[in-house]
Amino acid sequence: MALPHVLHTASEVATLRHQLSEQGRTVALVPTMGALHAGHLALVDRARELADVVIVSIFVNPLQFGAGEDFDRYPRTLDADVAALAGKADFVFAPDVNEVYPERIGGEPVPAKHAGVVGENFEGASRPGHFDGVLTVVARLFDIVKPEVVVFGQKDAQQVFLIRNMIHQDGLPIRFEVIETIREVDGLALSSRNRYLSEEERAAALALPHALLAVARHALHSPAGELREVGREVFEQYPLVRLDYLDIVDPTTFQPVSNDYQGPATVVVAAVVGTTRLIDTENLERLHA
Questions:
Q1: What is the pTM of this model?
Q2: Identified catalytic residue from 5, 40, 114, 130
């Protein structure tokens, strides 16, 4: 199978994009930070179904990492990633920071997008500025690649909500496609950070999917307040895991629902297993108070 062609500069992408536009070919973009796993490849497979040409971006974005987070140790595995994309993606865009952020202050990139109130909750509360960095890099990738379609995974539900809103608010002519979370056989959501887990921590990480499953099992018969407690109680069985948050939100606002809320809902959870931070989510078709 043919390896994707690797592009490193925005000008290379611009030349390619001009050629594809002249040929009337559509482009799907799958933005990633690399360290690809089967979850990423499922996004690429879906992108292949939706457009003529698939571009996968690989860029570890410094703007979405806070002080003391794992930016320096985040896995950078470009050669392995390109090999994994053989026969799946047509191009890989693997820029350096100068290509993505040509304008910097004091040598450092600064956010050009702001996530607002939703970006200050949950992940945003635990990782201040994280979603400003996410939206800034995604907007920049959109500007460089100019895709007709973009594909993201549902696991980071807050990110999905904010990027969808940005596309709508900016009036971008982009189809936004979201793929369900890809999981291991035992239910753990695939993540590039799973490789940090020891064998004992890997077993403890099942607290996240187990908590989501417990909430889902009670969703048709318990109010939201009780569901929150059901999910949080699961973590008491896992001493290696420190729960950051588990909450139930309205998918149309991404705000926590009231205890008597009825309707579709999304459960969001984050926890630290050993030293590794993991997130997960589950959509609930309907809550009944």
A1: 0.95
A2: 40
